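User: Predict the complex with zinc ion.
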Amino acid sequence: MPFKPRTEEQKEQRKNDYKNRTEEQKQRDREYTKKQREKNKEKIKISQKNYSDSHKEERKARDIKNREHITEVHRQYIQTDLGKKLNRIGNWKANGVINDDFDTLYEVFIKCEFCEKCGVKLVEGRYGDNRKCLDHSHNTGLFRNILCMSCNRKRMEDNF
Ligand SMILES: [Zn+2]
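Assistant: Here is the predicted structure with zinc ion placed in the model:
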């Protein structure tokens, strides 16, 4: 018998039949699928491995793209006020600062304009001797002062 493709009507009918299966049929179908899967375990494993091997490059490219996307989202996030705040508090914690109320500490830090030791005008940012630093005791972890980088460095050198 020559191959006759299904008509649209037949396709629709099949779809409906599938949708309208009784619970009993569904259960039977599930069991059948499970049995088939068990029977073809090795075959499936091999075909999964083949698929995986043949899509290595695609996967690598997708991983890179994902990572780039995450980096970009993070980069944008840490430029927001909340992002800056949480990022900074996270750094303090990572550096061993202990405090009951980081929100208040952050407020104090942000509002401080001058080094509490030498009085220099503090600047925001990651570089330069006048950048704002949170000074804490390396023994107790407790916050002490808001200092410029050069005063902070001197304290660290003196192990104070
Ligand atoms: Zn200073």
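The chain is about 60% helix and 5% strand.
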